[in-house]
Design brief:
heterodimer, A: six-stranded antiparallel beta sheet, 15 helices, 8 strands, B: MetI-like fold, about 75% helix
Chain lengths: ~350, ~325
Amino acid sequence: MIRFLTRRRGGARADWTDWFARIYLLIGLLVMFGPVAWLALSSFKTQTALQEFPPSLLPMGQKQVALPGTERPLPVFLVPQPDGVAQERVMVRRVGLEGQFVDPADPARRIERARLTAVTPVRELHFAIENYIEPLKQFNFTRFLGNSLFVTIVSTAITLLINAMCAFALSKYEFRGRDGIFIFILSTLMIPITVVLVPAFLIVTGLGLGNSLWGVILPPAATPTGVFLLRQYMLTIPDELMDAARMDHASEWRLFWRIILPLAAPALAVLAIFSVVWRWNDFLWPLIVLNRQENFTLQLGLAAFQGELQTQWHYLLAMTVVTLLPVTLVFAFLQKYITTGIASSGMK
Amino acid sequence: MSTLGRLIDAPFEALQRRLGAARMPYVFVAPNLLVFGIFVAAPMILNVWYAVTGGTQLMPAERPFVGASNFGELLDCDQFGVIASCRQDRFWRAVANTAWFVPFQVIGLVAVSLVTALILNRRMAWRGFFRAVFFYPVLLSPVVVALIWKWVLQPDGVLNALIVAGGGARVPFLLDPSWAFSWTVVISIWAHMGFYTLILLAGLQAIPADLYEAAEMDGTPHARVFWRITLPLLMPNMVVVLVLGLIRAVQSFDEIFVLTGGGPGTATQYIVQYIYETAFANQTHILGLAAAASILVGGVLMVLTMLQLAATAWSKR
C-alpha cells in the first residue's frame, strides 16, 4: 500500500500498484458518477416503471401502437399462436381475465382471444418526457427557475463589482488601515453563517428585505474568497500601466475600470464561475429568508416539493435533473478553470 | 457604449474631485465593507445580545435581559452524562450526534482525499478526466445530493436491487438509525471529497521532483519516501484540509436535513439543525437559545482550529 502511495511517476512496466490505481479509478468513476447517472436515467421512467422492483437500467415502457379509428395508443403483447410461436398483438379490449387482440399489421382481419396470464407485455425504450413538462406547467417550477436565475445573475454581478473594487484598492494603493481591512475580510472566512443566523435574519428583516430575493442576494455578496482571489491576481499586474495612465490625467476610477479590470479578466472569470455555483446552490440562507412560495428558489422549491409529494418521484426526479443541469453544463465546459482556481486560492 | 462608460465614470470622477485622489481607495473598499459590516460584523455583535436576552421577540429592544440563563438552560442537566435528564435534551442529542459524526467524517474525508490525490498525481492517461470525476459532486447543491442518494437508498432503490440480486435481504437504509447515521457520513464525504482532493493534489504537485529522484538513486524504501518526503512536504495543505474539513463537518446541515430530516427519530439530528429549528422552524422561535447555542458552536470551532494550528506548529519544531 505504502509503496504504491509513494510512487510519483509510473515505472516502465505496469506492476500491481498500477492495477490498484486503475481499479480505484474505475470504482471511483462508478461511485461518483453512478448515482447521478442513475437519477438521470430514472427521471425518464414513467410512474409505473419507477415502481418496478428490481428496477430496469434503462427507462422501459410497454410498447404502444395507435390503430386507425382508436383514440389512444393501445398496448402491445406477445400472444402465443396456434403454431406455438408468440407474435406481437395489440390488445383492443379486455373482458375479465381474457383479452381481445388484433394483428397490428392487419387489424381488421380477425380478433384473437387469449387469457391475460398467457400473454406477456412487449417492452421498449420509452422516455417519459411528460415528467419534465408536467411539473413545469402544473407547479410553480418555472417561477422557481426564474427566481434562481435572477438571484444567481444579479448576485454574481454585484459580487464581481464590489469584490473587484475592494481588491483593487487593497492591491494597488497604500492607505491607512489597508492591512487591517484585509485581515478583517479574511477573518470572516472563519465565521460560519450558522453562527450569525439569528441576527442576520433580524437585519435582513429590519431593512425590509425579508421574504424578498434581495435579502438572498445581498448578504453573501461580499465574499472574502473573491476579494482574496482578485487581490492576489491584481498584485501580479504591473503598476507601471497605471502610472502611465495617470500621466494622461486619468481618474482613479478610470484606472480601475479601463485598465485593471480588463487585465484581471481571468481571475474575474474564476470568481464568476464560483459565484454562479454558490448562489445557484444556496440552501440554508434562502430557506430562512424566503417563506412565501412564489419567492422560492429552485433549491427551496425542490426541497418543499419532496416534502409534500413523497410519492411523486417521477416529477421529483425530473426536477432534480433540471436543477443539476446548469451546474453540470458549467462544469463540463469550464472544468479546467474551476479546478485550477480552487487549487490556486485553496478555497471554496 | 462609450456614453454608457462615461455615465459610469462620471459619479466616481466627481467624487474624486471632491475627496481627492488619496481618499479614493476608501471609496473602492466602501461597498464591500458596507455589505460585510451590515451582514457579517453587525450580526456577530447582535448575536451576543440575543444570547443574553429572552422571549420570542425579534426586535432587540423588545427583548428582556436574562443574563446567562440561556446558556444555563442549555447546559442544565439533572444527571451528568444522561441526555434524557437535560432540560434541552434535543440540544444534547444533537451535540452527541455531531460528536460522533465529526471524527468519522473528517478522518474518512482526509483518508479518501489523500489516497485519491496520490493516485491522481501519478502519471497516467485521462488524468484531467478523473480529476473532474472526483470533483463533480462538489458542485451539486445539497438538495440535489440529498435527492440523488434518497433515490439510490430507497427500500425499492437500486442499491437494494443489487443486494437482492446478490442473494441478500433488503435493508431499510434510511429507516434504521445506525444505517442512516452511517450514510450521512458517507454521503457527506462523497459530496465534499473532491474539493479536498484538489487542495492535496496542488500540494503534491508542488513537491520538487528531484527530491524523489534523489531518494530513488539512494534506493530509499518507498515507505520511507512517503513518511519522510511526501507527508512532511504536504503538511501545509493537510492543515488546510483538516481545519476546513473540521469546521465544515461541525456545521453539516443541508444535505442531511433534506435527506433524513434528522431522523429516524433523532439519529441524524446535528447541531446546526438544532439551531435552525429552535430559531426558525418551531412555532415558538426561541431565538435566545439558538443564539446561545450558536455562540457555543462558534467557541468550539475556534478552539478546535487553534488546537490544530498549534499542533502543526508544534510538530514542525
